[in-house]
Specification:
heterodimer; A: alpha+beta; Multidrug efflux transporter AcrB transmembrane fold; Gyrase A, domain 2; 4-stranded antiparallel sheet; 15 helices; 54% helix; B: 303 residues; alpha+beta; Alpha-Beta Plaits; 2 domains; 9 helices; 4 strands; elongated
Chain lengths: 540, 303
């Protein structure tokens, strides 16, 4: 018997020691530990959730349909080229997610079928209608989501956030968690910007170019577009250049008629950096193309001397200078009344590459650091008061045995923190609530046992056998009540999001540890006492 | 021995008609609440309904009326205000979730900066949830409640007999309905964190039920000459003080959370407080009398 008790006490001692070692990094004591300890012992401990340390939790949807649309647009041009090469006369047009070819002839359909097997073909009247196969669409969307994830990761790496979490969720969602970010607006803009850099030639030959007004207020943009909608020549589009008056800060928008097809895009970029304008000491972004890009740029500028080339980012024209001569070397600049931070962020997004499709924000949770601190303090106070109240109650109601239950309670708390630290679990505000509830539930097992022991004493059993049979009889009840709580905690973990998951973790750990402390912890002390002393009356 | 109740002898089963009215009323209110939730008429948190919430802390105490007129003047529509005067905190909630989510909160603070610039504040937190996420979270919450209830039903049915499983499940559903109903009547917001409180209660209220059922199961063997209602009554009386004490310890912890745990988990703690009381009530007045439904006499003796 004695040996058995000793063994159980060593088990408790070892678990407490391990728990303390794991939890040490969360205490100020860790600073004073020797270097070898910091290197070889656990050093991470419990991680604070975003709701406690402040930061950003964002969920974006990758608009895969837009990627499919862009891809269809590309194919439209490719098909046009193929048909031209084969000297087949036909008009190729994109209509939504379909490509229409007029007229339809057996030669054309064979040519298309041979070169573009990923399209389903049908005829409607004079037209040959091509629609991308579903499998291909899914692949494009999936690819877009993966690429967006990678791009966002690159951008955030360069922005510099410690321990960001960037994950795909479901088919087309991306979850971004940025702890401790001080400027949420800037981070959101950085992630959400599509950063599609394009170079397009102006269409100055069309009569429409002269009819367009010089500039309009930003609110008149839509109206202007619908006013000229049916006058825009085939293959052209109207985009706006934003102009900010340096003195007054008034924003005006100048409509510009452009050839829709970009002569160059930003994917041929090799470098982007912030430079300062000599005249106004205003920052601008200078970009350098890679070898292929430089060659293309030389070709394009060479072929279009004296014409205007627009530099466009995300469908906004930044500038549209006249090409004076052929530009070799592959350098260009983007200016547009940037602030220093804006220019810096623009270089980040240009270097990290464009998003394959626009992002739509689904969820945006921003927590300031002070709120988290207040929550932690409130949680600590509530925990302390809850624990003390429970301890005092048990002492008054169960006296000596209550003291043993209180010992188990403290053991429970120590092990719970140790277990959370060993898992590097994330502590959230609901998680703190879970700990406090677990403290309240922790003594329940002891209450059930003690009441059973009292039952046995009432039937006239001596203390020692009353304790033994009390434990045996209460065991099933304790197990059942713990398992039901674990079932709901598991469900919460499965369905809950961040903070709620934290609650499920602390609650289930607390309940599981409680089984150990109640069944091994308090029983060992009872056994130790009854084996050492002859107890006539139990203090219960 | 310090005893809460010395040998109580209360006729719980005899009061079943009174308790049936109480139980029925609570459940009906709960069902009404669920219908209102399903049709979107209840006070749903933005995590379920979609919307934007901005929590601010002002440097000095601020009158809610000032905030209200500032927002009105700025053209912010359909907002609700709530404040915690002791901490100078103000919460602004709108159901707006259309358009660019990242800009809604900014537009609200921009209005405040413009119309009440003399009041300095810091932004504690902003939350914007789009309608799609709201729908998903709501479906998840419903799934979670159903899964938890099923899990409990299966576990209790395996550990006890089928009748006990049904009794425990009905008692659990009753608890969840009652808390939902009380939240609905009080006009309190039903959000994700309150739902987790509900699920916690679903798990915890079983503790009491299991304690009572254990004793009934045991006494069915010991007191085989007694009619069933007496066995149930005796069992409840025997375990009454421990049922109350186990609830009391959790109640104390939840009360500490309720009074000291801060605003964010205030309603969660309130749900737990209610749940502990209702869970204790239901294990005595709902779960136990249900066992009588099967046979008036000695139904569980042998299979």
């Amino acid at each position: 018997m004695k040996k058995n008790v000793l063994w159980r006490f060593s088990l408790i001692g070892v678990t407490v020691l391990v728990a303390v070692i794991f939890f040490l990094p969360n205490t100020p004591l860790f600073k004073f530990m020797p270097d070898w300890w910091k290197k070889s012992m656990p050093s991470k401990g419990i991680v604070l959730g975003l709701d406690l340390q402040g930061g950003l939790h964002l969920v974006f949807e990758v608009e895969g349909d837009k990627a499919v649309e862009a891809s269809t647009e590309r194919f439209t041009y490719l098909i046009k080229e193929t048909l031209q090469k084969k000297k087949l006369q036909a008009e190729v047009k994109r209509n939504g997610l379909q490509i229409e070819i007029t007229p339809s002839s057996p030669e054309i359909s064979t040519a298309v079928k041979e070169n573009y097997p990923n399209f389903n073909m049908s005829t409607s009247g004079q037209n040959l209608v091509l629609a991308m196969a579903d499998k291909e669409k899914t692949a494009i969307k999936d690819n877009a989501a993966n690429q967006a994830l990678e791009t966002i990761r690159n951008r955030i790496d360069q922005f510099g956030v410690s321990e960001p979490t960037i994950q795909r969720q479901g088919e087309n969602e991306i979850v971004v968690q940025l702890p401790g970010v001080k400027d949420p607006r800037r981070a959101i803009d950085l992630i959400g910007k599509t950063a599609q850099l394009e170079f397009k030639l102006l269409d100055e030959e069309s009569p429409l170019a002269a009819q367009l007004p010089q500039a309009v207020a930003p609110s008149e943009e839509e109206g202007l577009l619908s006013q000229f909608a049916d006058k825009v020549p085939e293959g052209d589009e109207i985009l706006f250049e934003k102009r900010v008056n340096r003195e007054t800060g008034v924003v005006r928008k100048s409509p510009i008629l452009l050839k829709k097809q970009a002569v160059m895009t930003g994917d041929l970029l090799s470098e982007a950096r912030v430079s300062l304008d000599n005249q106004f000491s205003e920052p601008y972004v200078s970009i350098t193309f890679n070898e292929e890009g430089a060659r293309r740029f030389e070709e394009v500028t060479g072929a279009n001397v004296k014409k205007r080339l627009a530099i466009i980012l995300d469908n906004t024209v930044y500038s549209a200078p006249v090409i004076q001569e052929k530009i070799s070397g592959g350098n260009a600049q983007i200016s547009g009344s940037f602030s220093m931070d804006e220019a810096k962020d623009l270089t980040i997004v240009l270097k990290a590459g464009a998003l394959p499709a626009p992002l739509k924000m689904l969820q945006n949770v921003t927590v300031g650091p002070s709120l988290g601190e207040d929550s932690i303090n409130a949680g600590k106070l509530a925990g302390l008061v809850g624990t003390l109240a429970t301890i005092i109650f048990m002492l008054i109601y169960y006296k000596g045995s209550g003291l043993i239950a209180d010992f188990a309670l403290i053991l429970n708390i120590v092990l719970l923190f140790g277990a959370m630290a060993s898992l590097n679990a994330t502590l959230t505000l609901p998680g703190i609530a879970g700990i406090i509830l677990a403290i309240g539930m922790a003594v329940d097992s002891n209450v059930l046992m003690f009441e059973r022991i009292r039952d046995e004493i009432r039937t006239g059993k001596p203390p020692r056998s009353a304790i033994d049979s009390g434990y045996d009889k209460a065991f099933a009840t304790i197990l059942d009540s713990h398992v039901t709580t674990l079932i709901t905690a598991a469900v919460l973990f499965q369905f809950g999001t961040g903070p709620i998951k934290g609650f499920a973790v602390t609650l289930s750990l607390g309940v599981a540890i409680n089984l150990f402390t109640a069944l091994v912890g308090t029983k060992s002390i009872f056994d130790l006492i009854t084996s050492k002393y002859k107890i006539v009356r139990l203090s219960i | 021995m310090l005893e809460l109740l010395k040998k109580p002898n209360i006729d719980f089963i005899g009061k079943k008609y009174i308790t049936l009215i109480v139980t029925g009323t609570l459940s009906i209110i709960g069902i009404i609440a669920i219908i209102q939730i399903a049709t979107g008429k209840a006070n749903m948190g933005i995590d379920f309904a979609g919307g934007t919430e901005v929590q601010l802390r002002f440097e000095k105490p601020v009158n809610l009326q000032v905030v209200r007129s500032a927002l009105d003047a700025g053209g912010v529509k359909g907002f609700e205000l709530q404040d915690i005067p002791a901490e100078n905190r103000v919460m602004i909630k709108t159901k707006q979730s259309e358009g660019d989510l990242s800009k809604i909160a900014d537009s609200i603070t921009a209005v405040l900066d413009q119309n009440m610039s003399e009041h300095k504040y810091v932004i504690d937190s902003t939350t914007s949830i789009g309608p799609k996420v709201g729908t998903k979270l709501r479906n998840d919450a419903v799934k979670a409640i159903i899964m938890a209830t099923l899990g409990i039903l299966i576990y209790v049915a395996v550990r006890f007999k089928f009748q006990f499983g049904v009794g425990a499940t009905i008692a659990t559903i009753h608890d969840v309905l009652a808390i939902l109903g009380i939240f609905y009547i009080m006009g309190k917001e039903i959000n994700l964190i309150v739902v987790s409180g509900l699920l916690t209660i679903a798990g915890y209220s079983l503790t009491d039920t299991v304690v009572v059922y254990d004793r009934i199961r045991e006494n069915l063997k010991l007191q085989f000459r007694e009619p069933l209602p007496n066995v149930i009554n005796n069992s409840i009386n025997e375990v009454l003080s421990r049922t109350i004490i186990t609830s009391l310890t959790v109640f104390m912890a939840a009360a500490a959370l309720f009074f000291l745990g801060g605003e964010v988990i205030h309603d969660f703690a309130f749900a737990i407080l209610l749940g502990v009381i209702i869970g204790t009530y239901s294990s005595i007045f709902v779960a136990s009398p249900i066992l009588l439904l099967w046979k008036k006499n000695r139904p569980f003796e042998k299979k």
